[in-house]
């Protein structure tokens, strides 16, 4: 059996009014209080109980800011829009103007992210082309000065064919010999 701590909370709907002591905003359960879980149960299914032994359990304190008769939590009928994939074109006809504005903001944000990615990739590609061109000029200088052997030149040609196979552009070497 679980022990009830000093700071346990209990629903006030399970007890009658005379079982609860109200002081200010806090409510305390009187000792020897018995829960009435079924408040509208028929008389034939209930029995009067007397607790002759004093209870050693501490009184349970519970506070409520607003006590409602019944709180029902339901899952929302519509999914929240957080990403561009959450927006369905079929549902856009039934959206309110405020929801349409929110959808447009989400789509703009998504577009801006993709634009940044595209620009970053363009810069990366431009830098790679510049680096390839500078390496090609370096190879041309090494060949003209005779510092590059025949086998090294063959290796460079194989690398060049590999790069073209992978789709990386390499300008043809035009060295002055």
Automatic annotation (TrEMBL):
Domain THAP-type as annotated: residue spans: 1-38
Keyword DNA-binding: yes
Pfam family, one: THAP
Xref: InterPro entries: THAP_Znf
Keyword annotations from UniProtKB, A to Z: DNA-binding, Metal-binding, Zinc, Zinc-finger
Keyword Protease: no
A molecular function GO annotation: zinc ion binding
Superkingdom to which the source organism belongs: Eukaryota
Protein name, as recorded: THAP domain-containing protein 1-like
Organism: Temnothorax curvispinosus
């Amino acid at each position: 059996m679980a022990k009830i701590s000093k700071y346990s909370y209990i629903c006030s709907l399970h007890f009658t009014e005379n079982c609860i002591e109200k002081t200010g905003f806090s409510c305390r359960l009187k000792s020897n209080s018995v829960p009435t879980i079924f408040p509208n149960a028929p008389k034939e299914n209930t029995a009067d109980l007397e607790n002759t032994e004093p209870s050693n359990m501490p009184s349970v304190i519970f506070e409520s800011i607003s006590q409602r008769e019944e709180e029902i939590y339901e899952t929302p009928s519509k999914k929240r829009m957080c990403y561009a994939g959450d927006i369905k074109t079929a549902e856009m006809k039934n959206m309110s103007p405020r929801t349409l504005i929110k959808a447009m903001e989400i789509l703009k944000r998504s577009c801006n992210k993709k634009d940044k990615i595209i620009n970053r990739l363009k810069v990366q590609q431009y830098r790679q082309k510049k680096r390839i061109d500078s390496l090609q000029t370096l190879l041309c200088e090494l060949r003209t000065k005779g510092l590059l052997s025949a086998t090294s030149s063959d290796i460079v040609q194989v690398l060049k064919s590999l790069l073209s196979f992978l789709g990386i552009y390499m300008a043809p070497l035009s060295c002055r010999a």
